[in-house]
Amino acid sequence: MNIKEKFKAIRNNYVINQVENIVLPNFECSNTTRKKFIFIGRVQKVGFRFEVSLLAKKLGLTGWVKNTPQGEVEAEIQGEKDKIDFLVQFMKSLKRIKIIEIKEQIIDVVCIEDEFIIIK
User: Fold this and answer.
1) Which residues contact 106 (CB under 8 A, 6 or more apart)?
2) Active site residue 42
3) Taking every annotated instance into account, which residue ranges of this chain make up the domain Acylphosphatase-like (predicted)?
4) Which of 2, 12, 49, 96 is catalytic?
5) Which domain holds residue 111?
6) Tally of structural domains, the chain
7) DSSP code of 26?
8) Active-site residue 12, yes or no?
9) Which among 11, 12, 42, 67 is annotated as catalytic?
């Protein structure tokens, strides 16, 4: 295992522990919505997609997240609005990530989706 792989493994273990220790608030029940996000800033090579994926799964959200060639991260996240908002606010609070701008758009719900994935 080279140094880059070791660093990634350490970072991933840190992210896993961090997400496992999040105490989720009690969310109000609401209708399912789907939002498309573009996260702009220092969001690649910092475990952003991995953390979004873990937290989305913990919250019971579905959708996907991927890097873009422009150095941004794009995601479609589906579930209850308060849970999506919690995920976004949590990501904005992280020190190793620097979100400069978030573009957000409400899009159509995908009825047959049942998981959250990272697109490589």
Assistant:
1) 33, 34, 35
2) no
3) 34-120
4) 49
5) 3-119
6) 1
7) P
8) no
9) 67
Q: pLDDT tens-digit profile of 3-36?
A: 989 888 888 999 999 999 999 999 989 899 999 9
SS3 111: coil
- Of 6, 22, 3, nearest to 94 by C-alpha is 22
Give tens-digit pLDDT for 102-115. Answer: 999 999 999 999 99
**Domain CATH for 26:** 3.30.70.100
* Residue 82, C-beta contacts closer than 8 angstroms, at least 6 positions apart: 27, 28, 30
Using an 8 Å Cβ cutoff, are 108 and 36 in contact?
no
CA dist 11 and 36 (Å) reads: 26
Give the pTM.
0.93
Mode of pairing for the β-strands spanning 32-42 and 73-80: antiparallel
- Cα distance between residue 111 and residue 32, in whole Å: 10
